[in-house]
Amino acid sequence: MELADEDFDFLTNEDKDFVQTLRRRFHDDFAQREADGRAYPCFFGPIALARILRAVDGNVEKACEWFQAFLQAISERGAEDLIQDVIRRFEAAKSDTIHASMLPHYDVVKDFYHAELHALQLSPDGDIIMYLPLIDHDKNGIMEHMDWDQWVTYSKAGTVLQCLALDSLSKRTGRIARIVLVVDMEGCSLDLVMNRTFLRAHRRDVVDCFQQKVAAEIVANVYVINLPWTLANLFTLCKTFVPAKFLQKVRVLSGDSLRDSSFVKHCGGPEQVAGFFASRKGLAANSSQKAHKELHSLDLWPEADELELVGRLRAKFADEFERRAQTGQDWPCLFSDLALARVLRGNEGYFSESVNWFQKFLEKMAEHQVDPLVAKMTQRLEESGLDRGCTSMLPHASEIEKHFRCVFSAPRLTPSGDVIWYVPLGDLDRESLIEEVDWAHWVEFLRAMVILRAVEAHKLSESQGRMVKCIMILDLHGSGTTATGFPKVEDFDDRNQANMKFMRQVVIEVLGPVYVLNAPWVAVKAFNWFKALVPERFSQKLMLLDGDGTSDQDFLELVSESQLKHLLATRVGLVSGETDANSGDALVAAGDCFQRCRDLRAGRTISWSFSVVAGDGDAWLGASDIEFSASLWLHPEFAQDEQPEEENVVVEAVIVQASKGEVSGKYTASRDGVITLRWSNEHSRLRSKTVRYRIDL
User: Can you list the GO cellular component terms from the UniProt entry (predicted)?
Assistant: First the structure.
């Protein structure tokens, strides 16, 4: 079909050239659709195609890529049927003015969502004005009371209906019409606006897979009005990360927006704007907020209401549960009532999202043949006789510990009974992992770690009668992290994304809060400011602490001060080129310390010797000295029947000067444990010291 200039003379020459280019490149698609009556003008007409070019700032190749993705999107199951259904509804209405009642499932949706799709008055430029009061967007009600597929269908149909209306208006007025969107925040708190489960699901099932792929350049401007002060500050913070092109379309107004004459004029005049405000229903404000919105922070064993939902999940996947029971693969850590309660809590208690997560979980289990790995890690934990895992249980541990070190399970649990996982990123040498470790071994190691954590959490939960989680301590010391972020190692980071995805899709609600130590000062301050603006449930899983956490009393009560010292002592510094050697010269920076941790079996003896090397400045500043001490911890990997205790002092802290020469000592363990030898230069703020040491086991 050739363009008739007299019909579309408002299109630019660039627009017209692009339309012809697109028709040539996708000739077969256009020909087939025109023959089948499926070349819908709102998507395949000259105006719709010109929108694509304008959406990518005139880049023809990007526009063609976009069109290819669009063809793929509408070829997905049900998309064509939906488009044709909406076209019939639009034509039956015999009006260019669209309204929500024209959409499928409106009778159900109207109790939870209200928006004015097409105001009576157009903007001065001739664009459609859409009014969306967020107080009438009851995300919680939609998730709890509606069939999610109904909401997805309604939302997708709304996008198609807008494309139809804009195409009709554009032909009638002789210009490419768009939408002026007015988002009204009156009466909204961030808690009401931000339902993370809804937003995640809506983006996944509506925005990313449909709206962004079928509607190009349909929005002219976005007015965000009546914005509370807190949200206005949050927008100011977040707009740094938003594309500049989108920001050019957004204008944020706080306070009484009726006093802004420019806004009122652009939105159809004072009567129309006042009518918008009068139409607010308060659907979200009147919604009964679910008590489960804090479920992710609970550690209670599931009770009757949760067990009812667990039963529904079992019924939904009855065939899978029956098959696993018959084959002995109904692993408690993944398929018990407690494991299913984790699925529910990880999805804010919403059944439809829990079903969606569990379906993808089963697919991931099959795709990566996870069952043999669960069997292996369950067996290793059982054979150990322990209730906690350790890295030596993982495949390829001896190979990987040269490039990645962590304390998989700290000696002491938290006061409530959660396990602590200490990960010093200064001991994650990604470059050497890529160069020296078979990538398949790294993948197997990480997947086994995820599964072992789930097995461990279930075993601890059963013994404690509560939902045990893993508290993670992420230490940035020596990692190279700055205020601009964690340094990127592309060869590692890009490939490792698949491992992160595996973790998210196989285990849920096992990881509790993450405490970040030694973050750059600027990052800590910015994060703490941000935390004050957002609901607690969005920030409480990530805590950035000043320094090494020793000044935070709540953190010390959680971890215990002596145990924190032990964890910090396990750092080696692999990223900076350090090795966990038994001998050598160590430069201990001013205000810093040097430590070596060694595992000790009962009856074995560790001996050490060291000397402080005299420095060039000794004549001016006094003899070089170092403070030496040694302490012992029982570790869960080596503990027998008793609970781990506080650290035991093996050598009291003593100052050793260079003039003393070589100092030696030894210790024979009566019980299995971990001994830490510590050379501290924290008392010196001016100069570094060198220690020459040797350790023998």
Answer: cytoplasm
